[in-house]
Amino acid sequence: MTNNLTISSKLPLLFKEFASIYTIDTESPERERSKEILKLMKTKITDLVPSNYYVKGSVGMGTPTPTPWIGIRDTDFTINFRNGIYIFYSFPEDMSALHLAIGQGTDGLKEEVGAAAARLQLTSNAASLQHIFKDTIKEKKYSKKIYLKSTQNRASSYEDSVVIARNYNIEKLPPEEELIDDLKNIIDIYPKMVVALNNYSQTIKINNDASDKKLEKELTKKLKKQYKTSKSQEDIEEMLENLTETDSTGGKSSGRNEQQLLRQLLFQNEITFKCAICREMRPVNIMVAGHIKPRTKCTFEEKTDPQIVMPICKVGCDELFEKGYLIIDSEGYIKENDSKQYTSDLSKFIKNIVGNKCEYFNEHTSKYFQYKYDLVKNKQ
Ligand SMILES: [Zn+2]
């Protein structure tokens, strides 16, 4: 039966077959087969949702997950599955059920406020939304919980995040028409929940604040443009999802995605890169996309200008530039700052750097360098 599944197979059959063969054993051919079925499910679901929705199937990024899922999100509401509210299908660890739910992104919040506070926030958001939508929940007989039957922390956050759910026994899935109906009903409620969540609290933590989201959107657009010829839409989405997974160089939580997008725009997928200050080749993981003009002083346009950053190594250059021990003059030359105190050892350290021309100095970036120069010379 497995080999006969195609894009025209009915959804209940696909879900059931996926659940029956899914394994976290990466050596198993059944895992590969389950990925193929996941793709079929994803394609079918993509056809059922509005065109601006993005559908992603996940069997775990890097490490296989015991609780695979398919996320469905409106790309206007959130730029990834780590933040905001989205729809998802998920399977419990024992694969005995299928859940269709509206839940909240958990990872972004955890990173921002820590696991314990995130849990409180997720459950409190869920409770508030369940209260606001109590009539719908009653009328449509929605559950307020899913049961992933897993000991993984990640799985319990997913459970905490759930607002409403339709839980099916995998052995007793309804016919396809009914599954589709359920999905359409959930799609009806989804935007209303996003609006409700944003309305009931101005300071709600689950969504990035509006300006951060605007920044991310603008940068995502630029990133997609950069990758347009070389990568598929899906690859870009995957990469964007992975950015925050693997990269911890972002710094402050609120500007996190923005910083990572800038970083991706600058370093792309290179392993090594030349430092703009010392001109030495360094591994990218000990480099930063350093703001030429301090981020806090930047306008929106400047924050979303890929040239606002340059590659700077953490082998000293990052700190020395940021703190104003190395300055770049109006012609792009790297200088010592005579209003700073240098130890003789530090002077020795920067001896070979001073006098270099910074390759990132150009007509476009000179204004950013000028601002920084004036700032560290106490003119601003
Ligand atoms: Zn350097």
- Low-confidence spans: 202-208, 245-256
**What's the alpha carbon Rg, rounded to whole Å?**
25 Å
Please estimate the helix content: 40-55%
What does the main sheet amount to?
A: 5 strands, antiparallel
Number of helices: 14
Indicate the CATH architecture of the largest domain: 2-Layer Sandwich
As a percent range, the share of strand residues is 5-15%
Q: What small-molecule ligands were found? A: zinc ion
**Overall mean pLDDT:** 87
C-alpha end-to-end distance: 72 Å
The largest beta-sheet arranges its strands as: 1-2-3-4-5
In short:
This protein has helices at 11-21, 29-48, 107-113, 115-132, 134-140, 153-161, 176-200, 210-227, 233-246, 256-267, 300-303, 317-322, 344-350, 366-376, and strands spanning 53-58, 69-74, 85-90, 97-104, 164-169, 272-274, 281-283, 287-291, 309-313, 326-328, 334-336. By secondary structure, the chain is of the alpha+beta class.
Describe this structure in words.
- By secondary structure, this protein is α+β, with helices and mostly antiparallel strands.
- It has helices spanning 11-21, 29-48, 107-113, 115-132, 134-140, 153-161, 176-200, 210-227, 233-246, 256-267, 300-303, 317-322, 344-350, 366-376, and strands at 53-58, 69-74, 85-90, 97-104, 164-169, 272-274, 281-283, 287-291, 309-313, 326-328, 334-336.
- Strands 1-2-3-4-5 form a five-stranded antiparallel sheet, sandwiched between helices. A two-stranded antiparallel ribbon has the order 6-7.
- The longest helix is centred in the middle third of the chain and has 25 residues, at 176-200.
- It binds zinc ion.
- Residues 275, 277-278, 280, 313, 315, 317 line the site of zinc ion.
